[in-house]
Design goal:
Layout lengths: L6 H8 L25 H10 L2 H5 L18 H19 L3 H10 L8 H11 L8 H12 L13 H9 L11 H24 L5 H5 L2 H14 L4 H30 L5 H6 L18 H19 L2 H23 L6 H10 L1 H10 L3 H11 L4
Helix pairs in contact: 2-5, 4-5, 4-9, 4-12, 5-9, 6-15, 9-12, 9-14, 11-12, 15-17, 15-18, 16-17
């Protein structure tokens, strides 16, 4: 019986030269013995999945604060959809799927309750402390806040995972991110463009006819009709939105493969050099990108969703009072830091009370925020 390949041999056989091999990892901040079965990136993935921050995503808003239906996305279901799309892209491009899965599962663990409404509120409340950004908060969780091991703070993830998360909050001034990072960012964009539209129609914020007025959606609908004939209602919506994902994924794979070939990308070093200042392409540009026509269609869809969904009166009517509750709770803990859990009280000595209060509230789920607001401020 042929013994199974270990992870090093498997990666050597299956990964493209431009992929990040775990054998070439820069390691961890705190050295640990190698695992006999799992690669470093497999271990990173498992550490994310078993973290408290990941579990809490199940009860954090994606977009629609205060809508308590079971259909629309939570932050966790969005994360799983991003992971699915990212793995498809990774396999098509010969990338490290374990690293891609880790990055996708981790990419939103820094989001506070109430979705972007919560992030905007915390950013304002913590302005004097340097602000709040969910990408920076995810890195803070990875390196410091999540305490799971007795030997070190944080999750002690591989440096490539930490660097990838750090790159999500930079201005593109350094080396280009790994292709694995670029793929996850692209998958995130595909997922929220498509699935936010789906949720908006389900909640009655948009009609399918309005979506079909957008060129990119109309193109997806034309493909559906050519394949299935005339559809109506939920069958039409589901088919069109599935096709919209496939359309974006196929375009991204084709465009990226062509760029890798034309630019002679044959190593991770060449990936990092591409798009870096002084590199062979415009600074900040990425190898993983859509064709111009599809990219324009995505921008039009995103502008439409911003105007008609994210800033719609119905959404804002729920969002504003939720933000007021978060603000009230933040100020209450600021005045009563002794009520913080022990770990946050201890960290307040190092980072200050406002930042520790922000860390605590950012870790709350939507429903715990509501419960704690009622308990602390004696509402109801």
């Amino acid at each position: 019986m042929t013994p199974p390949l270990d992870w090093r041999a498997r990666e050597a056989l299956t990964l493209a030269p431009w992929a990040m091999h775990a054998a070439d990892s820069a390691g961890r901040v705190h050295d640990e013995p190698a695992h006999p079965v799992r690669s470093p990136y497999q271990r990173d993935r498992d550490r994310i999945v078993h973290s408290a921050a990941f579990r809490r995503l199940a009860h954090k808003t994606q977009v629609f604060t205060g809508y308590h239906g079971d259909y629309h996305r939570s932050r966790l279901t969005h994360t799983l959809e991003v992971t699915s799309i990212a793995r498809t892209l990774a396999r098509a491009l010969g990338l490290n799927e374990d690293l891609v899965e880790t990055l996708a599962l981790a990419h939103d663990i820094g989001h506070p309750p109430l979705g972007h409404a919560g992030e905007d509120t915390l950013a304002e409340l913590l302005r004097a402390e340097g602000g709040f950004n969910h990408n920076a908060q995810a890195l803070r969780i990875m390196e410091f806040l999540e305490v799971r091991y007795p030997e070190f703070p944080g999750l002690n993830l591989s440096r490539e995972v930490l660097d990838a998360q750090a790159s999500r909050k930079k201005d593109g001034s350094g080396p280009a991110p790994l292709l694995e990072t670029q793929v996850v960012d692209a998958a995130d964009s595909i997922a929220y463009d498509t699935h936010d539209a789906d949720d908006a129609v389900e909640l009655g914020l948009l009609t399918m006819d309005e979506l079909l007025g957008l060129p990119l959606v109309a193109e997806a609908a034309g493909r559906v009709t050519a394949r299935h004939g005339v559809l109506e209602g939920a069958a039409l919506r589901h088919a069109v939105l599935h096709e919209l994902v496939d359309l974006q994924v196929a375009d991204l794979v084709e465009r990226t493969r062509r760029a890798l070939e034309m630019e002679g990308i044959d190593s991770v070093a060449r990936v990092r050099a591409a798009g870096a200042p002084g590199g062979p392409r415009p600074a900040g540009s990425r190898l993983v990108s859509h064709a111009p026509a599809l990219a324009a269609g995505k921008r039009e869809l995103e502008t439409f969703l911003f105007d008609r969904v994210y800033r719609s009166p119905r959404v804002l009517a729920v969002r504003v009072p939720a933000q007021e509750r978060l603000t009230s709770l933040f100020h209450w803990y600021g005045a009563h830091p002794e009520a913080l859990p022990a770990g946050y009280r201890d960290r307040a000595d190092r980072f200050g009370v406002p930042r520790s209060v922000g860390d605590y509230i950012a870790g709350m789920t939507d429903r715990f925020l509501e419960h704690d607001h009622a308990r602390r401020l004696q509402v109801g």
